[in-house]
Amino acid sequence: MAAANELGLLGVQVPPTSAVPVLVVQNAFRDEEGPIEVWEDIYAPGVWQVASS
Predict the structure, then answer these.
(1) Which in 1, 22, 23, 36 has the greatest CB count within 10 A?
(2) What is the 3-state secondary structure (H, E, C) of the chain?
């Protein structure tokens, strides 16, 4: 569940006692020697990533 400061950064307006899920996607690219790049994407409710056709 998202914390109050995270909801503010995402622009999500809800009552302070509401539980709000967010989608966190962890991405890691590596080669035979180890990690090359690692990051997280965080999506607010209703803004889930959609695969393009």
Answers:
(1) 22
(2) CCCHHHHHHHCCCCCCCCCCCCEEEEEEEEECCEEEEEEEEEECCCCCCCCCC
- Report how many domains make up the chain: 1
Q: Which residues of 6-19 are buried (b: 16+ CB within 10 A; e: fewer)?
A: ebeebebeeeeeee
pLDDT for residue 51 is more than 70: no
Tell me if 11 is assigned to some domain: yes
Classify residue 49: in a domain, yes or no.
Answer: no
Say yes or no to pLDDT of 22 above 70.
Answer: yes
Instruction: Give the domain range for residue 20.
Output: 4-43
pLDDT of 40 reads: 86
